[in-house]
Specification:
single chain, alpha+beta, Thrombin, subunit H, 2 domains, 6-stranded antiparallel β-barrel, 12 strands, 35% helix, disordered C terminus
């Protein structure tokens, strides 16, 4: 026991003089503390890194949402500009179109349409009526060709019977060969039919059909349709002539109503 006490006192005295043990203990303690604290520091760094990434991700998400909203807004503006440009072109065509003599043009917008087998008639509703002089059978056209005629009207609106409706009949003739006939509608998604064309009368595929003015409704010379097919059956006195409208009737937005300026002479 005395030996142990003597040994400890000797070590203490030696360490007091040299400081070796204090140095070793300090370094060892530092190493132990460092190794013990390393997982804590690593965990803290990971948490901080994760949090920073989350914050940055949130900022990126917000920036992406802002940019997406901006892109969407620019897309809508571009679409609106395209629509306005298309409308300007259509209105320019309408403005440059010259009416026949003794007729005047009243521009109107299409506000509704009835197409297809479930519609009573193939028709359009236009925002011009009797208030501006529109009457029954007023011709309706575009710069490309004939659309139809007014079936009935009110002070502010007119119901337009399209040339594709089976009730529509337009007196026409070939622009090149002047062969006359009656253009009749066959319903939706079907070709028009030119009736009462004698077998020996001249007409060719691709020829433009224009109004002849013989029906007392349409002024003479308005383009109506293009001949697509001609058949001359041996069992009939007339040719079978199919034609297609020059106007895309299903996508109309603006039309002309053709008002007759000729005064009515009462007897």
């Amino acid at each position: 026991m005395l030996l142990i006490i003597f040994l400890l006192l000797s070590i203490y005295t030696w360490n007091w003089r040299t400081g070796v043990l204090d140095g070793i203990t300090g370094k060892t303690g530092l190493e132990i503390v460092a190794w013990v604290s390393f997982p804590l520091r690593w965990t803290r760094e990971q948490v901080r890194s994760t949090w920073d990434s989350y914050v940055k991700l949130g900022e990126v998400r917000q920036e992406n949402e802002r940019l997406w909203a901006k892109v969407t807004d620019l897309y809508l503006q571009l679409s609106r500009l395209h629509e306005e440009a298309a409308e300007v072109n259509r209105l320019r065509d309408l403005h440059d179109f010259q009416p026949p003599e003794e007729w005047t043009l009243e521009g109107g917008r299409v506000v509704a349409a009835r197409f297809g087998p479930h519609a009573v008639v193939e028709s359009l509703l236009v925002d011009k009526g009797t208030r501006v002089g529109v009457v029954e059978n007023t011709p309706v056209i575009t710069p490309l060709g004939v659309v139809g005629r007014v079936l009935r009207g009110s002070p502010s609106f007119s119901n337009v019977l399209l040339i594709t409706d089976p009730n529509s009949k337009v007196a026409i003739m070939g622009r090149d060969h002047r062969t006359q006939g009656i253009l009749v509608g066959n319903g939706p998604q079907r070709e028009l039919q030119m009736q009462y064309v004698p077998l020996n009368d001249l007409l060719q595929e691709g020829e433009i059909l224009v109004t002849s003015g013989m029906d007392g409704i349409f002024p003479k010379g308005l383009p109506v349709a293009r001949v697509q097919r001609i058949e001359r059956p041996s069992t009939s006195l007339f040719q079978v002539v199919e034609a297609s409208s020059l106007v895309d009737l299903r996508n109309l937005e603006e039309v002309f109503l053709v008002l007759n300026l000729t005064p009515v002479i009462e007897e």
